[in-house]
Design goal:
single chain, alpha+beta, four-stranded antiparallel β-sheet, 1 helix, 7 strands, 45% strand
Length: 119
Amino acid sequence: MFKTGVFLLAIAFLIFVPISSYQEQGTGTVDITVMSENGDRVTPDNLMVRVYQDFDSVPFKEIATVTSIPIVVDSLPLGHKYKFEVYMNDLYGDAAFVDLQKTHDAVDVTIKNAGGLRL
């Protein structure tokens, strides 16, 4: 009788403690302003953003179609570090890093002007 009660108490503990200690994690938003070297905003055409969480090598989120500047990246869990890689015309532009501790943050990314050879 005593062993059965202890067994049921142990099962109840294993089932209900993880549920009661679970706390929903908040999310935040990051605004990314993309500019050229001379300070002008870049048009959103042909831009793509890859978001990496906590130094992972696999993107956490990818934004393939950018419609406006600043680029709003939402639904990011708080308490993590993020790396934002910005690509223009499928070429790597630059990266920015954010340690997201509050619900909103903003970052600027500067893409170098396309170089060329002058004759």
